[in-house]
Amino acid sequence: MHVPVLLKEVLEYLNPKPNQNFIDATVGDGGHTKEILKITASKGRLMSIDRDANSIIRAKSELSEFGDRVLFINDSFGNLLRIVKENKFGTADGILFDFGMSSSQLENSGRGFSFKKDEILDMRFDKKSPLTAEDVINDYGEPELLEIFKKWGEDPKARLIARAIITERKRKRIKTTGELVKIVELVKRRSGKIHPATLIFQALRIEVNEEFLEIEKALSALPGIIKHGGRAAFISFHSLEDRLIKNWSKNLSKEGIVKILNKKPITASTGEIKSNPRSRSAKLRVIQIT
User: Fold this and answer.
1) CATH number of the domain bearing residue 166
2) Nearest CA to 37 among 67, 79, 57?
């Protein structure tokens, strides 16, 4: 079962009120969305966006009780400005971004998001996108693999892993997560609780889905789609995302466009981490449009 992370803190900082309108830019399985909709009854509307068509299907089922108060959009949040205009949604009272993977994507997608299962090397959120993780692993040159492993994975063994992949694919095309994990494990030993392939899988997923480009496009649109006094909440799960949000917030704060509501990121309580280990790495930052 999917458990939304930092739910209490998200609701506290977004501070939804009856009849207000919100956007969930990464609806996933709809956990945060459901609680916001309960508070914004009876006329509050919520636009739910997700690149993954399967996530939209799951969210529609989870949120069916709210009827036409929810608008579902299968698209990337990088197209936020266009989505809002096309659907005549108007300015929102708040928006939520949860950059993490949903439990369903990790466990049931069959697209190779998790190194714990032997699946095809796909990693696309949107199945219509042309580039797959298999393409990256087999068609990128060694310098390109090294760059994404260093830039998006910050893996200290990036060069050795890139070289090992090049060597192995000369023998045969690398098609599954299991094959990739074996290559990584030959180069890199486990360090504590972190699996050797964690950073490589992160880097591949970011590259395949152009995740940082999409985040940057969404951030540039935010001041125009949130009301004055409205809030934006961001949940990140690794340092690259958190750093991007932190620097963007600082720059806009200096210009007087936003107010930073928490200078240090909010993290999960000991109790939440115990009941939902996935929340351990979650960081929440919130800004208010001035």
Assistant:
1) 1.10.150.170
2) 67
Last residue within a domain, chosen from 209, 234, 255: 209
- Which amino acid is located at 25 in the chain? A
Which pair of structure tokens corresponds to residue 83?
Answer: 């989505």
How confident is the model over 182-226, as pLDDT tens digits? 999 999 988 788 899 999 999 999 999 999 999 999 999 999 999
pTM, full prediction: 0.94
Please enumerate in sequence order all residues whose Cβ is within 8 A of that of 169, keeping only pairs 6 or more positions apart, or say none: 137, 138
Could you read off the pLDDT of 266-277 as tens digits, one per residue?
Answer: 999 999 999 998
| SS3 call for 119 | coil
CA triple 277-75-283, angle to 5 deg: 30
- Using the Cα atoms of residue 100, residue 106, residue 112 and residue 116 in order, give the sign of their dihedral: positive
Q: Does residue 158 share a domain with residue 41?
A: no
Tokens of residue 285, six digits: 């930052």
Domain-embedded: residue 2: no
Last residue of a domain, one of 209, 224, 247: 209
Q: How far apart are CA 7 and CA 232, in angstroms?
A: 14
Tell me if 285 sits within 8 A of 238, measured CB to CB: no
β-strands 266-267, 92-98 pairing = unpaired
User: Are residues 278 and 5 in contact, defined by beta-carbon separation less than 8 angstroms?
Assistant: yes
Provide the pairing of β-strand 226-236 with 266-267: unpaired
Give the range of the structural domain holding residue 113, as residue numbers without chain letter: 109-209
pLDDT at 184: 98
Contact between 199 and 149 (Cβ < 8 Å): yes
- The token pair at 165 is 């992949």
Does residue 127 share a domain with residue 268?
no
